[in-house]
Design brief:
The chain contains 11 helices and 19 strands. It has about 475 residues and is an alpha/beta fold. The chain is globular and about 60 Å long.
Length: about 475
């Protein structure tokens, strides 16, 4: 079997890439203009229109809804959020606990809305299992588990090697940590269903409409300018394509492979009956799911960053990355050694300089934004959409402040990334350091985290 490489992602392989909606026909006006037709933009439009049906809302998307990370991700609907530890240091422990609890509830919120709106996204709520395969990873796993409990996650389970393997038979597992706050999804089905629902509520969606410039009260496109009191940037990994935003969030590449449907005897060897999401505690970590049609979809970092914050066009990934991910798959699951890799692809996620997700509405200009999810965007985008709704309604005088507008990620600002070539050199050096640290930890079999990885964390601002 020949591996399909690119074509946006495997998630579009069955239904095909959607025909784009009509572009913006010319200059227009709206109450709220949302730039970006991924999860963040669509959730924001959904909650705003539900809360204030009279609002005139326009969504502008440069390709089609779900072209970016929303249609290419690993299908991890889970409760992780980028920057929680930093928010605890900046705003106090309880503020970070509040943020974590909001994320826990957001997992259930997505599942609930999908059900009530008739969106079939292959959702299965099996939780998330994080595993450790070296003594150093096990030490980090134990510390991670304790930290999650300290931030209020009392329903998380710490598992020994046998308990972890009983859930998913990962070769060499030394232990695991499981949380119920996670669900497998089919990313493209979710974003396409959400776009359909939003459009049905009366929101205007214009695709094939790139936004080249944002300014107070307007979004500029080749087809005309949309003027609105509120202009919300929801572009995540594609933010660098907007004028003046080249160094705002770094577009980090993540790559995935998916197997052919696996035979029953392979699943007998692996287990995975609970359909949990699967991750690990390596520095260059992996993520995986068991799909609804009996495949393993697995991802990790390939070439982490393209010079000048460039992004690819169709999700094609490097051959060496496909080989590396396949090798990782077989190390985790030796029973998959004979399985064909049916599809490979890449996408970009937004990384702020301090690795903190944030949401903001500038009340003077009406400009707002949300993003910087660092790979945790499937759930975080829902919380961001509800938070942007509350900020807009608060500013317009239609509602009071809410518990969401008080969360510590609201209004967070971060310095810009370094200019080139320092940005490219730094990112590639850091990920080379992380991969080297993983290799040394596996060879040394010591419980201590590799010192090079600790230094890389310090330099990158990752922790």
């Amino acid at each position: 079997m020949t591996t399909v490489n690119g074509g946006i992602s495997f998630w579009y392989a069955q239904g095909g890439v959607p025909a784009p909606r009509a572009p913006l026909p010319g200059p227009a006006t709206a109450d709220v203009c949302i730039v970006g037709g991924g999860y963040t933009g669509l959730w924001t439009a959904y909650y705003l229109k539900r809360a204030a049906p009279s609002l005139r809302i326009t969504v502008l998307e440069q390709h089609f809804c779900g072209y970016g990370a929303s249609g290419r991700n690993g299908g991890w609907l889970y409760n992780g959020i980028a920057g929680r530890d930093r928010y605890a240091r900046l705003h106090g422990h309880q503020a970070a606990v509040d943020l974590q609890r909001a994320m826990n509830r957001s997992v259930a919120e997505v599942v609930s809305v999908a059900g009530s709106e008739g969106i079939d996204a292959d959702i299965h709520t099996g939780g998330v299992l994080e595993v450790a395969r070296t003594p150093a990873q096990l030490a980090r796993l134990n510390a991670f588990h304790a930290a999650e409990a300290a931030f209020g996650e009392r329903d998380r389970l710490l598992l020994d090697a046998a308990g972890s393997a009983a859930r998913i038979g990962v070769h060499g597992t030394l232990g695991g940590s499981w949380t119920p706050h996670g669900a497998r999804i089919h990313p493209a089905k979710l974003v396409r269903g959400l776009a359909r629902v939003v459009e049905g509520l009366g929101v205007k969606i214009h695709e094939e409409t790139p936004v080249t410039e944002l300014a107070p009260g307007r979004a500029v496109t080749p087809h005309g300018t949309v003027r609105a009191r509120y202009v919300l940037r929801c572009t995540e990994g594609f933010t660098a394509s907007v004028h003046g935003q080249k160094r705002t969030w770094l577009p980090m590449n993540s790559s995935m492979i998916v197997t052919e449907p696996l035979a029953p005897h392979v699943w007998d060897a692996i287990g995975w009956q609970g359909r949990e999401l699967l991750g690990d505690t390596a520095h260059a970590y992996m993520y995986a799911q068991r799909t609804a049609d009996g495949r393993i979809a697995l991802g990790g970092r390939g070439i982490p960053y393209r010079y000048g914050s460039r992004t690819d066009n169709d999700g094609r990934t490097q051959a060496a990355t496909v080989v590396a991910l396949r090798d990782l798959l077989v190390r985790f699951f030796p029973a998959t050694a004979g399985a064909a890799i049916e599809h490979a692809w890449s996408g970009v996620l937004g990384v702020p300089r301090d690795w903190c997700a944030s949401v903001e509405l500038d009340r003077a200009s009406g400009l707002g934004w949300a993003g910087g999810y660092v790979g945790s965007g499937v759930t975080t985008a829902n919380l961001a959409g509800r938070t942007l709704r509350d900020l807009v309604l608060l500013d317009s005088g239609e509602a009071a402040a809410t518990e969401l507008t008080a969360l510590p990620w609201v209004g967070h600002r971060v310095r810009r990334w370094e200019p080139e070539p320092f940005r490219w050199l730094g990112v590639h050096a850091l990920y080379a350091a992380y991969r080297g640290a993983d290799r040394r930890e596996a060879a040394r079999q010591s419980a201590g985290t590799d010192p090079v990885a600790r230094l890389a964390d310090l330099i990158s601002g990752r922790h």
